[in-house]
Specification:
Layout lengths: L1 E6 L2 E6 L6 H12 L4 E2 L3 E9 L2 E2 L16 E10 L3 E5 L4 E5 L10 H12 L6 E5 L4 E2 L14 E7 L4 H9 L2 H6 L5 H18 L2 H9 L29 H8 L2 H10 L14 H8 L2 H11 L2 E3 L4 E3 H23 L51 H18 L3 H12 L1
Parallel strand pairs: 1-6, 7-11
Antiparallel strand pairs: 1-2, 3-4, 4-5, 4-6, 7-8, 9-10, 9-11, 12-13
Length: about 425
């Protein structure tokens, strides 16, 4: 079958044998046009064939794809940069690419967690990174110390029991977020701050409004898990990020308007680098959010006998808020730390980790109780010979899959759920 191949301004005719696949045609074109292709760890250079506006897959046969005699196929060379690392997100079940080159492996794990937080929307204090063989990666170490190569994969794990909560936050489901909140007050407050952080990243306005009615402030830093509150001074610097900073990074104008309407102190809230939401918008090129913040900054606040510029009004509010917190500490005898004697503590490398994802086939869905072993004869099987065959099949299945029939039922019911 004669077809025409358009490549780099030329159009050549080729005789394609019947049953020829797209992959073999690409190899023929590579040799004919002397096209250098590559597939190394950093980039991939490959051919792409298109017909009638659609991309032809390698395993397709030309005639089966509807290509007829004297048809014209377009051939182009595409270059694809490969990620320096891939991170498997245990919550969303997706691989997150981290772009870069060999220099990324010389960065610290702390830097890698910051890059990942910008991509997945999770605060750095709710997840840890592990190699595929289960070795935990600590912030102070470099990525190369864990024997990772370019294009390697690491795993993102979250606090035990948090996978459903974070998944609901990513989707913006307020009812599900409320369902999975903890009953212990310190963790409950921390989860609310985490939920507002994620809502600001993904732009879930309804969820953010509900969280603010629960007393969460957009200018309040996410902080660390209560299990690690005792070592917060040495934790990741991004734990000081607030929900308003995330909204400014992602250009979530509706969220910024909501935050400022409830708390004008968000206008001058600073992150660990001393950057306000205005500076963050400039750095990330968020023009609409920047214009709104500038407009608010240059507005005035009117009272019955006085009118204050917004910057002066914010400073007065900050002074009042600081004074209120100090008075509260004096009256309530608030301790230096939020944790108490007897609260759980996590020490890296010494205590049992609390960020371990359990097997996905655990029995989340209850099954009927196991029948009495004394009555193990299957019912309605017709003949005793059929019962023997069924028991033999079940034993063979268990030996092959490594799971009992009950465990297998739990596994697939969990997937269906």
């Amino acid at each position: 079958m004669k077809v025409f191949i358009a490549f780099d301004g030329f159009c050549e005719s080729f005789d394609i044998p019947p049953g020829q696949t797209v992959k073999k045609v690409k190899l023929m074109l590579k040799d004919y046009f002397h096209i250098p292709l590559s597939d190394d760890k950093q980039e991939r250079r490959f051919l792409e064939l298109t017909y009638a506006g659609g991309v032809l897959r390698d395993e397709w046969v030309l005639t089966d794809a509807g290509i007829t005699l004297c048809s014209t196929i377009k051939c182009i060379v595409k270059e694809e940069e490969k990620p320096a690392l891939c991170v498997y997100n245990a919550v969303t079940k997706e691989k997150v690419p981290i772009m870069g080159d060999i220099h990324l492996l010389a960065e610290t794990v702390s830097k890698l967690k910051s890059l990942l937080s910008l991509k997945c929307g999770f605060p750095v204090s709710v997840f840890c990174l592990r190699t595929l063989d289960g070795k935990e990666m600590y912030d102070c170490n470099t990525v190369s110390e864990y024997n990772l190569d370019l294009g390697g994969t690491v795993r993102l794990d979250v606090w035990d029991g948090w996978k459903e909560l974070l998944g609901a936050c990513v989707l913006g489901h307020r009812q599900n977020v409320q369902r999975y909140l903890s009953n212990w007050e310190p963790i409950f407050r921390f989860q609310l701050r985490v939920a507002l952080y994620i809502a600001a990243h993904f732009g879930h306005l309804e969820l953010a409004e509900w969280l603010q009615t629960k007393g969460v402030r957009a200018d309040e830093e996410v902080g660390v898990h209560p299990y690690r509150d005792w070592c917060h001074d040495t934790d990741h610097p991004d734990v000081k990020k607030c929900a308003v900073h995330v909204a400014a990074e992602k250009g979530q104008l509706l969220l910024i308007r909501s935050f400022l309407a409830r708390n004008i102190l968000c206008l001058e809230c600073q992150n660990a680098l001393g950057q306000t939401p205005t500076k963050i918008c400039i750095r990330n090129g968020q023009k609409d959010c920047l214009l709104y913040l500038i407009m608010k900054m240059w507005s005035v606040v009117s009272f019955p006998k006085v009118t204050l510029p917004m910057n002066i009004y914010v400073k007065v509010k900050q002074w009042l808020y600081t004074a209120q917190k100090r008075i509260y500490k004096v009256k309530k005898w608030a301790p230096q730390f939020k944790t108490h004697v007897g609260d759980p503590v996590v020490v890296d490398g010494f205590t049992e980790p609390k960020m371990t994802i359990t097997n996905s086939w655990n029995p989340y869905i209850p099954l009927p109780p196991i029948t009495n072993t004394s009555n193990n004869q299957p019912r309605n099987l017709g003949t005793p010979h059929a019962a023997v065959l069924l028991n033999s099949s079940l034993e063979s299945f268990t030996k092959h899959s490594g799971r009992t029939p009950r465990e297998n039922a739990v596994y697939f019911l969990s997937l269906a759920r």
